[in-house]
Amino acid sequence: MIRVSRRTSSWLALLVLLALLALVATSCTSRPSAGALALNRNEGVAPAADAFSVYDLDGVWRDQAGAVRSLADWRGRPVLVALIYTHCTATCPLAVSELKRIAAIDPQVRFVLVSLDPARDDVHALAAYAAERGLDAARWTLLTGNDDDVRGLAATLGIRYRQVTPDDLAHTNLITLLDSEGRIARQSSGRMDDTAIAELHAMSR
User: Containing H/E element for 125?
Assistant: First the structure.
C-alpha cells in the first residue's frame, strides 16, 4: 500500500484546484461593449436590427468648413469612417489611400474622417489636409471635436489610442462601414476585400 504524505496531498489538491480554475476561465467568453464588434481582419457580420447606432452618440463636431455637425447627419446612407490625425506619417496615410481607392471604385460612397488629435487638428488643419490630398468636400467630411466626444466615438468603434510622443499617437487602424442606421456592418484593419466592397456598393444604391 502506497502512503501519501500530508504535504503531498496538499500539493495534489492545489494542482487539482488550479486545473479547475483554468478550465472555468477558458470556458468563459467576454461580451463586447455596445457597438464595438469583435471582428477579425476583413471579416464582416450582418448587424442586428437592434444593434447600437453610432448616430445615437451625443457630441458636437465641426467639419473642415467650420460647420457644426452631428453624427446623425449621415443617417439614411452608409458611410465609411476612419479615425486619423493629420500629422500622422505612418498608418493614417495608408488608411486614407485605401479609402481613396474605394472612392475611385464607387462614386456613391461617402467618407468621414475623425481626428484623434483635436488639440492640433482644428478646422484650418482639417481643411489644409483635405486640400493637400484632394478630398472632395462633396464626398469627404473631416471632423474635429472635444476629447470626450472623440474618446466616446473611438470606444464605440473599438479603437484604442494614446499619446506616445508630443507629436505622435499610437492607435488602432480600422476602417468602419456603418449602415444607413449607423450600425457597424463591417470593419477592416487593412485593404478591404472584394466582398466588402460589393457589400458597400449594394448598400449605397
Answer: helix 123-132
